[in-house]
Amino acid sequence: MRISTSSSLMSLFQNQRIEHKQSIKKATILLSNRDSYVKGGDNTSCVYSAKVGLKLGSATSSVLDMINFNYLDIMKQKCDKQFSIIIGGKEYLKSELPTVSADKCKEIKAVNNIIDFTNGQYYKYTEKDGRVHTFTCTNDHVDQPYSELVSGRQSDASYQVAKFWNMLSRDGTYISLYYSKEKQEQLLNDAGITEGFFTVKSGKHQQEYFYSQGSAGVAVRKFEYDSTYEMFTRGSALFNKYNVGDKFMIGGKEYTLTEERKFDIPYGDDIFDIEFPDHFHGEITE
């Protein structure tokens, strides 16, 4: 089949060439106008320029700090792209972000039975097998460093450790639903928490607990301890079914029930670790 140069097909081909040139021109304009950034007060200020191009950078320790502790600002300024993050006029590929060095992380350790996570600080937890989990405390929350998450190095084990401390810093009422007694004791012991009262802080969040070996749970909120202690020391109908002089094992120590149906227990003993006598006398008084 012969095609004449005056045929309508030639006009179609010409139109296609024109459209192709226009699309190339449009793409060139878009590439030249891609986001570029200049250093601002927080190193993440964004401006648009058709002349200044972005340079790929190798993330230094200070760049990682900016990413990990200022990621919300970076997001607000639209400097967090699908595959890269822009800091101070340079583009850093998320897939090439280095790991946070464990050397710059503080071990999660209690001081005077207080765990204190401070905003803007790195932390680490070392498993018995030597695995090291790194964390940041940002915006009153403990989590894997943002640079680790966006680079595809998410760790469920790290998430579980962070979740444990976040729950305790807020309200650990239901922590036993997520962590076994053994796991709770492991994390508390590894952090140097000893039995008795302890505190967990994460930024502005803070909760106090009693580390117990009893049946009420491992981490019992302090106000629950206080209310139970008051019941034990002021007398309670709970003990009316027992005889005066009956022996109770409380916190590993023997205590005698007084005539007022109470116990002379020092504040701070593990009142939830209690062994009742294997008998009682009389009727329960309402």
Question: How would you explain this protein's 3D organization?
Answer:
The structure is a single chain. With 286 residues, the chain is α+β, with helices and mostly antiparallel strands. The chain has seven helices and 16 strands. It has helices at residues 8-32, 61-69, 71-76, 146-150, 156-170, 181-190, 222-234, and strands at 35-37, 46-48, 55-56, 84-87, 90-93, 106-107, 114-117, 121-126, 132-138, 141-143, 196-202, 205-211, 219-221, 247-250, 253-256, 274-275. A hairpin with a 2-residue loop joins strand 11 and strand 12. It is elongated and about 85 Å long.
* Multimeric state: single chain
Overall morphology: elongated
Q: Order of strands side by side in the largest beta sheet?
A: 6-8-9-10
Number of helices: 7
Give the DSSP E fraction (strand runs of 2 or more residues).
Answer: 15-25%
- Mean pLDDT figure: 82
Q: Give the helix level as a range of percent.
A: 25-40%
Element-by-element helix/strand order = HEEEHHEEEEEEEHHHEEEHEEE
Tell me about the largest β-sheet: 4 strands, mixed
